[in-house]
Amino acid sequence: MAFSPNPLSLSVPDPAFESWLRDSGYLDLLDHRTSAAAAAAAAPASSSSSSSAAAAAPSSASDDVVSSITGGFFASLLSRLVTVSSLLTINPFSKLSADDFSGDTPPWTTGFFGACGSYSFPSSSQQARMRVHENIKRFARNYATLFIVFFACALYQMPLALVGLLASLALWELFKYCSDRWKFDRHPSARRLVIGIGQCATAVLLTFLNVQMALFSALAVSYSVMLLHAGFRKLTPSKKPSRGR
């Protein structure tokens, strides 16, 4: 049965519909929509390869099956490698704002880690990019906590860096004490001179006591964990949609 065209029907463009899903909190539907689009794009290629294999001669049928299986495996492996490598080209902080750190921290067990079914390989680079942007906005406070934990572990493994960090903090506390006692606020030139000396001394301490190495290692580990978690973590609804009565 065919329906006649409805002059009152509306056609919503895909970008507008995806923007509405994102603003309304239906991130899981947006994630599923991207996976379905990638599967639909890959379906014609698989159907064409199967039809060509069916049209082959019976003597070379087994060879065609082996070659099609091998070619499909390497094509799938190459596609997955391209998808994973695309994570390195994403700017994960492009949509991050200060408001993302002002909310409550999502639960670690049910929200951040989730169950085993909460993870899947991204079907395309577009889905990986979308997951990274949305998950980083949602779990910004969790990732910040992980960075603090990794930095503390790096300082524990590098005691000299811990000494340099504590010495830098003690140096600025000493500057604050001297500023309050000797009223540096009344002498701006002397205050600027002391601040410059303190900055130079802090740079020397942080450089020679390898504090920057501990900071770099913590940044590298936390950045890698953040990209992998955000790229493989499925999107979940950010808020419950309101229902009309």
From TrEMBL:
Gene Ontology process terms (BP): vesicle-mediated transport
InterPro entries: Prenylated_rab_accept_PRA1
Subcellular location per the Swiss-Prot or TrEMBL entry: Endomembrane system; Membrane
Spans through the membrane: 143-172, 193-209, 215-232
Protein's membrane topology: Multi-pass membrane protein
Entry keyword set: Membrane, Transmembrane, Transmembrane helix, Transport
Task performed by this protein: May be involved in both secretory and endocytic intracellular trafficking in the endosomal/prevacuolar compartments.
Similarity remark: Belongs to the PRA1 family.
Entry protein name: PRA1 family protein
Lineage: Eukaryota, Viridiplantae, Streptophyta, Embryophyta, Tracheophyta
